[in-house]
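Give me the fold.
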Amino acid sequence: MPTTDPSIHAPWLAAQRRSRARRAASARRLRRVRGVRTAFLAALTSLVLAGAHTGATAAAPAPTPAVAAVQKALGVEADGVAGPQTRRAIRRFQRRHGLTVDGVIGPATLAALGLAAARTASAGNAGALEAIAACESGGDPTAVSADGTYRGKYQFSVATWTALGGSGDPAAAPEAEQDARAAALYAARGTAPWPNCA
């Protein structure tokens, strides 16, 4: 009568367990990527719908000399429009220079680029943003609309805040971060996101 050695199946069972673990890890990664894509598409959709609601057109943002100067310093094509290539270059530069990787051209990033004297927003833009903040929230960075939809100094929706690279609650973010993200939004879309305060 032939006997079977139970240890013969041990390598096969171990290989099967490893295979199942790899498949489970792959499925988790795929779910995570799909979740990020879904969140990105939801944020993008809300921005498009917000633009349609305010009567804004889908025209390309106007080029600005400040963005062109940053692009030249980063070594990317200087077209003056802060598009995906520019944002990637900013994050890459911030990562390489030990700065906070947020994709925002703030004072620290400008200084590291050697453009500390330049500003991303001109004095006119700064004045316009101050007026928008005063109109939207009275300048209060912790302000929240009555229905809770709009939050912070510039009354960002969470979708717009996320699309601009922010995370969490806009009203809980530091005022400097709110100012930087509002400047980026203003540079890209002008006063369209704030139709009641234009």
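The chain is about 55% helix and 0% strand.
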